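Continuing the batch. This is chain 6 of the set; chains 1 through 5 are on the previous pages. Same settings as before, nothing changed between runs. Recording input and output for traceability.
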Amino acid sequence: MPFPTVTERYGSLSATGFAKESVFGTPVAATTFLPMLSNTMEVDPGWFSPQVMQATRDLQIYNMYGEAHYTGSVDGPLFPSNAIPLFVASIGTDVVTGVGPYTHTISQANALPSLTVEKNLGNFQSLQFAGCRVGKMSIKVPTANEPATMTADLTGRSAAILSSPTAVSVSNEIPFVFAEATLTMFGNARAYCANVQIDIDNGLKETYTYSGSHGPSYITPVTLHVSGTLDVVWSSLNDATYGDYTSMVNGTLGSLVVTVVHATVGTVTITLPQIVLNKYANDVKISDVIMSTLTFEATKSFSSGYTIQAVVINNVSTAY
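Output for chain 6:
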């Protein structure tokens, strides 16, 4: 057989871009890029064949198309400004203040922003997903030779092929790492904590209507659930500060604040004003120190009026 004539495309030349949409589902060119670790966004055209009886044994006769889905996840390091619109879109709205560096206060909103997500394949062609909303967002700060990361599960409204990908532009900055992190829980600094993960679930609901399109007419964030986990070096079961077991048993309520700060410009702070510990487990090994894994649930604080808020400080002067 002859050698194939297909030209190979390099995965390393791929990229993922984002842009906030002015009108839900109307695509716009990417304005920021995430140096991604992975992008699994794909198209499910909703093919089906009704199983009918018509004097033939064949199970599938009619090729039909119903509800199309445009879904997947994007995973990459957490930067001061690269792809921060993706982070904002998982929470709500942004108000910017300051004169440089600029402070972006990201607050909960019932209506989440929609994004156009461009999946650049080998810098040859792109799949452009319009009307994307963030269903789930996970922020992780591992204590390892790994950057802090954000992973977003996305649901879109439509997809189109771009023959010429948008030119990739990445801000000259580095991701955050655990040595730049601080964590306070129940009002106390917890320098002995590690591997925090905060999960935001926006409870996306796809609604299909007689719109003339196979994609969803609405992608609605109908609920908000925030939870997470963290590891701690075990010290005591009932210490006033470090007795996390007793805090769980007593149903103690308090805040959780995680911050990562660059020595130069760049800060991301996530505030959960009210959490409760709902699971506690000790990992006891002969060759290690005793570690505890804590699972927490965030609830809406009536005093603050929200479940989650974030602040990003960077060199971007406009609101996301």
